[in-house]
Amino acid sequence: MRAYEMAHTVGFEETNLVGNVYFVNYLRWQGRCREMFLLEHAPEVVEEIRRDLKLFTLKCECEYYAELSAFQRLTIRMTLVDLTQTQLEFEFAYLDIDESGSERLVARGRQRVACLRGTGTEVEPTRIPESLRRALEPYADELRVAAG
């Protein structure tokens, strides 16, 4: 299955007093990866977010398999696992990359997102914007995608 990838180098500010990456940063990286995908592949959606579109995170999780520390290089690999009329779900693989380029899975996460429109607390579910649906098509090869 095709994946979107984001490179990241861990900084000191992402570690705790013990020197390993603080757990909440993995969730921040999920959001950053999703944002970079939008910026690169669906900039029209970024404009819609500035108006009234909300990409509301319904569920976010992460399982940790190994510790990371400052200056480790990572690839965060995002794959699309579900796409309906109003929601999408991504899986994230956090891969530690060593000097030889070998990958080691250090964590795995998931995020379910709903599309909403409105202002303030006055929001309601809305269809995934067509520009986002088009951007996700190459990543949905093996999915049974709900009719748009």
What would you say this structure looks like, in words?
- This protein is α+β, with helices and mostly antiparallel strands.
- The chain has a single domain, classed as Hotdog Thioesterase (Thiol Ester Dehydrase, Chain A, Roll).
- It has 3 helices and 6 strands.
- It has helices spanning 24-41, 43-51, 130-136, and strands at residues 4-9, 53-64, 73-83, 87-97, 103-119, 122-125.
- Strands 1, 2, 3, 4, 5 and 6 form a 6-stranded antiparallel β-sheet that branches.
- Helix 1 packs across helix 2 (43-51).
- The longest helix is centred in the first third of the chain and has 18 residues, at 24-41.
- It is globular and about 45 Å long.
- The mean pLDDT is 92.
Give a quick account of the main beta sheet: strands, pairing sense, barrel closure.
6 strands, antiparallel
SS-derived structural category: alpha+beta
Cα Rg: 16 Å
Task: Sketch the topology as an H/E string, one letter per element.
Answer: EHHEEEEEH
How many distinct domains?
A: 1
Q: Name the CATH superfamily classification.
A: Hotdog Thioesterase
Topology:
Blueprint (H helix, E strand, L loop, with lengths): L3 E6 L14 H18 L1 H9 L1 E12 L8 E11 L3 E11 L5 E17 L2 E4 L4 H7 L12
Helix pairs in contact: 1-2
